[in-house]
Specification:
single chain, alpha/beta, binds SN-glycerol-3-phosphate, binds magnesium ion
Length: 230
């Protein structure tokens, strides 16, 4: 039972239980009652937005090679785990269907514009709201491109490290969230983010002990492969 205001974010769905970034994984995350689920997007050679974490298909499928060099039909022939296919962004949004918020992580270059177009379509045609979305990236250029296109959608600046001016980079980007890796989050970073009016979420937290540590720092959100453990 939840006893705090920390947002639980299913990482790549609920990838501790199901193959990451597959429809199975997103169904599991919803079943576990997450408030938000995160996933990663690239554009493939034929222009479709696909949900996969790595730039290559090697680790998570039975294929090899770069996502951006493969056509959609080539990608669809691959097994992403337990017979699952690499899903499109739209398939993922349709499965989630506003039962949880979505954190779309822009992994590949050139994702900002098609993601913005998809979000606009889901707002107009399927009743999704501004607050159903959080768009994030380690690539702050891609994130800025997205923010310039669709400034009303909340964005999160990702970082694995501790910049000298802590969350200043995220504030300058106009972000609502600064999301930092577990290994680098500190109380100073959390306090700085809050002083700038930003929320801060931490990835990836799978152990209850780690959750207690970052909870004591006052973080606002937690990404987990096992969202029910925290
Ligand atoms: O957005 C949090 C987290 O997903 C960032 O790292 O490598 O799992 O995409 P990664
Ligand atoms: Mg991610």
């Amino acid at each position: 039972m939840k006893k705090d205001n920390i947002i639980r974010i299913g990482h790549r769905g609920a990838c501790g239980y199901e193959p990451e970034n597959t429809l199975r994984s997103f169904r599991k995350a919803i079943e576990l009652g997450v408030e938000m689920t995160e996933f990663d997007v690239y554009v493939c050679a034929t222009g479709e937005l696909v949900v996969i974490h790595d730039d290559k298909v090697d680790r998570t499928t039975n294929g090899t090679g770069y996502v951006f060099k493969k056509t959609f039909s080539e990608l669809r022939q691959l097994d992403a785990g337990q017979g699952e296919k690499i899903p499109t962004l739209e398939e993922v949004l349709d499965v989630i269907n506003r039962k949880a918020k979505v954190n779309i992580e822009l992994k590949g270059v050139g994702t900002a514009k098609p993601v913005a177009e998809t979000i606009i379509r889901y707002q107009k045609e399927k009743g999704w709201l501004i607050d159903d979305f959080l768009v994030s990236s380690f690539n702050h250029h891609e994130l800025k491109a997205f923010h310039d296109l669709l400034p009303e959608i909340p964005i999160g600046a990702l970082i694995t490290g501790i910049p000298l001016n802590y969350a200043e980079f995220a504030e300058k980007l106009g972000a609502q969230f600064v999301n930092v890796s577990m290994e680098f989050v500190t109380r100073e970073f959390v306090d700085d983010a809050h002083q700038r009016g930003l929320k801060i979420a931490v990835f990836t937290v799978n152990e209850p002990d780690d959750f207690e540590l970052i909870k004591a720092m006052g973080v606002d959100g937690v990404f987990s492969n096992f969202p029910d453990r925290i």
